[in-house]
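Q: How would the C-alpha cells look for this protein?
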Amino acid sequence: MKAYDLSITAAGSAGAATGTATMAVQAGQLVGVLMQYTSAPATTDVTVSEALNGVSRTVLTQSNNATAKSFAPTVPATDATGAAILSAYQPEVLYGGVVTVSVAQANAGTIVNVRLLVED
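A: Here is the predicted structure in C-alpha cell form.
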C-alpha cells in the first residue's frame, strides 16, 4: 500500500479563495482518503479528481465542509456486460494518472491536507 500526501494552499478573499495541488499516483485501488482541515470555513469545497491521457474524472467531492473525515470511496459493481449489480460496490480504481485536489469557497492559507491510500 502506498500513501500520497497533498497539502492545498488557497489564495483569494475570505470565503472565495481557491487552490489546487497535483501528484502522480500509481495504478491501484483507492482504499482510503483522509481530509484534515487546518483553517477552513464551513463553506469549503474539496474535489479529488484523476486525469490520464486527456481523460479526467471526479473521484470524490466534499461540499460545504471543514470537519476532518475519512472515506473509503466505492463505485457500483458491474457484471461482464457493464450492467450494475444491485447493492454491490467495489473500491474506486485509480489508473496511474495525475490526481488533483481542488479547494473552493475557502479562506486564504493552507486549507486542507489530504492523504490517499492506494493498494496495488
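The beta strands are 2-10, 17-24, 27-37, 45-52, 55-62, 69-71, 74-78, 84-95, 98-106, 109-119.

The domain at 2-119 is CATH 2.60.120.230 (Jelly Rolls).

Upvote if useful.
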